[in-house]
Automatic annotation (TrEMBL):
Belongs to the UPF0174 family. Belongs to the CBP3 family. This is Ubiquinol-cytochrome C chaperone. Residues 35-171 form the Ubiquinol-cytochrome c chaperone domain. Coiled coil: none annotated. InterPro entries: Ubiq_cyt_c_chap, Ubiqinol_cyt_c_chaperone_CPB3, Ubq_cyt-c_CBP3-rel. Pfam families: Ubiq_cyt_C_chap. It comes from Pararhizobium polonicum.
Length: 179
């Protein structure tokens, strides 16, 4: 049900658009790239948006039914956006499904690895997972993702304080600076 938005009337469209825009804007905040080591590349932006969405999904997993339904529609919007971006990069119709499958597997793999580290509040494990995903081509041992791990842990703590009204109206936002 990745593309659940196609062919159905969506009564939550404004909420979904507002929430997805907030999450996308949060993932594009300049200090993430200038101060926290997120590469300013297509894949770096995909990775940061994925991390932001993972925090969002972790918050909404305990939400009321409306919040969980919106979360599913957010994932649909995310994959629709990824599909559109792949096409804009010039990938032909034949290659899109293969790339989408690979990117979906990447997203769900990150969801699993980040969730385990976030659940245990393991800064080092989260930083190691972030380094593997954000900087897969480097062996540079001095490259640290601890600042980004700290940001994500603080963001998750902040999101846990958000009320159901914020979830159900699509107004969840991530912190503007590392705590």
């Amino acid at each position: 049900m990745i593309f659940g938005l196609f062919g159905k009337k969506n009564s939550n469209a404004a909420i979904i658009a507002r929430q997805y825009d907030l999450l996308t804007a949060a993932a594009r905040r300049p200090y993430l790239y200038t101060d926290l080591g997120v590469p300013d590349t297509v894949m770096g932006r995909f990775e940061m948006l994925s991390a932001s969405l993972i925090l969002y999904f972790r918050r909404t997993r305990s939400a009321q039914r409306a919040g969980q339904e919106i979360a599913q529609e957010i994932i649909d919007a995310f994959f629709e956006d990824v599909d559109h971006s792949i096409r804009e990069l010039g990938v032909g119709d034949v290659g899109v499904p293969k790339r989408m499958k690979k990117l979906a597997a990447m997203f769900y793999g990150r969801l699993e690895s980040y969730a385990a580290a976030l659940e245990s509040k393991d800064r080092d494990a989260l930083a190691a997972a972030l380094k593997r995903n954000f900087h897969p081509q480097t062996e540079d041992l001095s490259l640290s993702m601890h600042g980004l791990a700290d940001y994500l842990l603080a963001a998750e703590a902040q999101l846990a304080l958000q009320g159901e009204d914020v979830v159900e109206t699509g107004q969840i936002d991530l912190p503007h600076a590392a705590a």
